[in-house]
Input
Amino acid sequence: MGLHSYFGGATIQTLKMAAVPASASYSRFVFSPISRNLVALDSFPRHSPSPPFPLLARALSMAAAVQTTPPSSEDIGTATGSVGKPQWKAAIDFKWIRDNREAVAENIRKRKSKASLELVLELYEKMLAVQKEVERLRGERNAVANMMKGKLEPSERQKFIEKGKNLKEALASFEEDLVKLSDELQQEAQSIPNMTHPDVPIGGEDSSAVRKKVGSPREFSFSVKDHLQLGKELDLFDFDAAAEVSGSKFYYLKNEAVLLEMALVNWTLSQVMQKGFTPLITPEIVRSSIVEKCGFQPRGDNTQVYSIEGSDQCLIGTAEIPVGGVHMDSILAETVLPLKYAAFSHCFRTEAGAAGLATRGLYRVHQFSKVEMFVLCRPDESDTYHEELITIEEDLFSSLGLHYKTLDMASEDLGAPAYRKFDVEAWMPGLGRYGEISSASNCTDYQSRRLGIRYRPAELAASTNPKKGGKGNLAPTKFVHTLNATACAVPRMMICLLENNQQEDGSVIIPEPLRPFMGGMEVLLAKHHTG
Amino acid sequence: MGLHSYFGGATIQTLKMAAVPASASYSRFVFSPISRNLVALDSFPRHSPSPPFPLLARALSMAAAVQTTPPSSEDIGTATGSVGKPQWKAAIDFKWIRDNREAVAENIRKRKSKASLELVLELYEKMLAVQKEVERLRGERNAVANMMKGKLEPSERQKFIEKVLNHSASGKNLKEALASFEEDLVKLSDELQQEAQSIPNMTHPDVPIGGEDSSAVRKKVGSPREFSFSVKDHLQLGKELDLFDFDAAAEVSGSKFYYLKNEAVLLEMALVNWTLSQVMQKGFTPLITPEIVRSSIVEKCGFQPRGDNTQVYSIEGSDQCLIGTAEIPVGGVHMDSILAETVLPLKYAAFSHCFRTEAGAAGLATRGLYRVHQFSKVEMFVLCRPDESDTYHEELITIEEDLFSSLGLHYKTLDMASEDLGAPAYRKFDVEAWMPGLGRYGEISSASNCTDYQSRRLGIRYRPAELATKFVHTLNATACAVPRMMICLLENNQQEDGSVIIPEPLRPFMGGMEVLLAKHHTG
Output
């Protein structure tokens, strides 16, 4: 019954919004052969001299907003695999960074980032100088070549041949320097964090500001159990078997826990589809370059990412990654924006370095189910959609009757990609504390500059822009803004529901909205054990 | 509405059956430190001499049904990592193999297995001889030790010491001789284990003998639908209905990955929900399982997690891999435990994502959703008494057939031929459904009776009333492999206008949706 009204109409409406221009699917393949080549090169580093990146100089001399011409696979395929070489290029706006060096430096300080702005600017200036020299030499070489097209005395011709040869050698050497410099610059600049929303509180975790508080901790007239104890009595989990079969922090869901997970996912999807989000089920194995482009570190000692042996692939820690990749290296029509996705996936995390943290039961686990919202929109709309996302989250959690607070996360707690981040922390009476149940981030153009996701403003905007007369009515492309937000991280939601809705007899009341998705079940009852 | 009646009562009933004796959870940890040690050893093979396996001789002299004392972690932890050493021991009944050598040889022939029975029997006889010698020497050593406990003349005592020091003609003393034989015993039993693990399960007498073409049709339901228009395959339908994105997935993940979009997401959820509700009605306990498991569990279920042509994705820098089917983590739930007979049968229905490399599948049908690296599946798994496994095998195939009939599919059920069973199955029933877009029948499910093949590797026993423990039988059967089901539903239920009718049973799980309609593209 309940489901019927959610779908039908809403879905069709969503579909229209989600349509993508045909050009997107063609441009997608530009990058595909690259990562394979580079992985092979990494294993067997070659020390041959680097050939030039012909597209690079052009890219860097273009306006920042359109400097993302992706290198063709041929160029990259023959590049050296020297250590520290970036495997892909973010379209970082170096000119903007130079012109706003004070603001960028201040931002790096605010966020306690380890990025070195000095080094980035130094490399950028060096690179500009070399680039200028390369362009001058190319001009000369072309002039010489033009001269030689005409009729010449043999002695004259010989002089030009000599000159051309010298120019070619000088040019090759400078071009090589240019490649090295731009690689170094890319490497350094990738660690510069996103800028910070002016309203973000400055400081560490404790500085985060409470935006909103809903409800209050439930008063219990009996001694509360945590979700592990409740789960044991209700026969909902098996951590012991999972520890043997898989390792610690794995678990089986059993009996009504399976139904509860299905209900949470179904209900959440139906809710967000009503709000115009297109549902997706995503790949859970992705190329590691996509993980990097979304701002995560797939390698290193403390990585949260599981890698697949003998390949460049890894497991996703969140559906944000494969959804971010859907429109990679493409130019969207402005009319399709905003694109709003709600992606269901399993998520996998190593939880390396989490030894000291709260790890009881379902709170911190290696595998879990999650519905993640993801929005691609025009830059001027991302603040609005950020508000929309946090409102959707709050509405979902309120519908389930949770007591929670929403935090405007402090500058040092944002991670590199987020411009602003809202976390929701819900009361978990069994654990006796608030625990994070969701996170909504506005990443502005941090991810889109790495993933190469641009849009072309409508023609009207172009015709009113006097700067771009030469290119007909086509406006220059811009990077979209991306936002992501948890709609439902199943295990943490289970903790909240079990611990908050427990009754004195050990039973657990199922929140009203989930009941239609559990065949009308209203309560989880304790089992009688046999055997 | 529909769901309400399925749960409530049925679930509670299932729970009683699923209860496990408390001892199980304790014995579970016996194995956990082992695989880690061995992985480390594999990377850095040590060539120190093998210390003895003290438990092994005892295990082998015991009755086959109870010979599974798992080696303690200490024993394995210090063992050498020489190539070919098994990382765990299957409780293979060597005595039974020797006593039934003709039947076993015939079975190996029937299944075109590469196992070498001759070598297994030779190693077994050798091992028995060495074991006998070890026992004799231990007896002697104990006798001497006992003698020396009493009061003795110094000269007498000296004689015993001489005896221990200068044993036999070999010149070795008793202690040294024993150590040497014990070392041989370990090596032999490792070799024996390695060889014997490749012996396939025995074969049900009704299984047709031969290759794929010999498989017998057990049942045929319906007939191919007659179309009055030219049919589209699921890829074409999915494109028009905006259900999949293979192009984006190829770039983000690789070929044979895909995104499900729009109603395809709802269809997957509906298939999983409906299937779970159906099998729960039949008394199956629902599970959602880990999808990363230790590779030893994969091996114990009869799969090969390593090697060039492995179907298994491994996790870098660990001994873990991704599951190709929920059969693996469900098989592991009761690993190394002894169940009370009263809890049997245990019936599970596990939902998981499955991951397969599809190595070597280059030449096979690979269009669209048919052969993919990741998919959702509900898998049934039964643990039961040996005398009941044939009955539960019939029950499982009947459940599958009922599910597919409810969805209106045209299919046939095959009794798979001996060469097509794989090592673990004693008998296997496959269901192949008609896929009009692909223009052929395609496998949509498989139901296998593995008898005690997996339980002897996983160490899952039960204790009949007042008797010695026995190995349970395990069975597994696909309840719903989502992508293949989607192919069937899309291709069989397509209408001339490109829309697709949703089967009646799934509609309540899709909010009453009755048809998938073609989209109008914008942009």
